[in-house]
Amino acid sequence: MVGGVTLSDPHPTPRLADIAAQAQVSEATASRVLNGKAGVAAGTRQRVLAALDVLGYERPVRLRRRSAGLVGLVIPELTNPIFPAFAQIIEQSLAGHGYTPVLCTQMPGGATEDELVEQLEERGVTGIVFLSGLHADTRADPSRYARLSSRGVPFVLINGYNPQIDAPFVSPDDGAAARMAVRHLAELGHRRIGLAVGPARYVPSRRKAEGFVAALGESFGLSRGQAERLVQHTLFSVEGGDAAAAALLDDGCTGIVCGSDLMALGVVRAARRRGLDVPGRLSVVGFDDSQLIAFTDPPLTTVRQPVQAMATAAVGALIEEIHDRTQGRENPSQRTEFIFQPELVVRGSTGPVRE
Prior knowledge:
Elements: H1 16-23, H2 27-34, H3 42-54, E1 70-75, H4 82-96, E2 100-105, H5 113-122, E3 127-131, H6 143-150, E4 155-158, E5 169-172, H7 174-187, E6 193-197, H8 203-220, H9 224-228, E7 231-233, H10 238-250, E8 255-258, H11 261-273, E9 283-288, E10 301-304, H12 307-326, E11 337-340, E12 343-345
Parallel strand pairs: 1-2, 1-3, 3-4, 4-5, 5-11, 6-7, 6-8, 8-9, 9-10
Antiparallel strand pairs: 10-12
């Protein structure tokens, strides 16, 4: 027996006191939820249901909601921890609205975005969330999204704005992220600062580069041409950061701003291979602040992408699109870009420049 539950029992009977304690509600409130009674706030009801899940109890049949429909979530990969972070919050938010999320991940050599969308449509999805998809690639044909819209499938796009696509967009302020990173390094005395960022064809890369170039002009009076020579476009990966660091260190940079946390880890690796201490001889700033970044060596200074707010807003915009389509309404006012402000998180990978 553990806490009144026999471990061999595959379907233990829920104990009201345990559920109430886990959900931080009274036993009377927990009882109302478990018995399907009205008069309980939606957030409180959700906490009680979550307590059932956490404690390993099966939900009573009467509490199992019928799905409002399937919603696809198309993401580029799972190896970068920022994408699972987005996926988890988006899926939780969709479930809270009664929808069943369907995760679709692109893999090198696997299904393309268009093929995944086709499979989702075959399954009758109610809507789709695209995260860092082809909409962010300036070389990709945006007409695929117009065709999707014409087939009556609502969708929302995260990270990467394209004015040719008539849909809600959710983005962080990439330009502001680069500017705050440069200002942080400048305040620490760094005068030679480089940018390691992803391929120039991606909207987030372009916006970060534009913010970086503007910040160097504001802080040090560099011309656009001088600042652009300190930008290295490479892959959004550890290997990409490593490659960019080689060129930027050869150019005398004492501080490097990165387009992702993974790139920043590659920069740290390249610095150590040269015998350079971080942050003693090189300061490094990442971007994203995914869950494990605070535990790297050294803990990474980074610009936090507001994942919770962005993911929740994206689901909210999609729900509105679904409702508008269901009722035959057009709502062009929400088909715009919602921009969220990032936050600088200072940890151990940045420090004063060494003279």
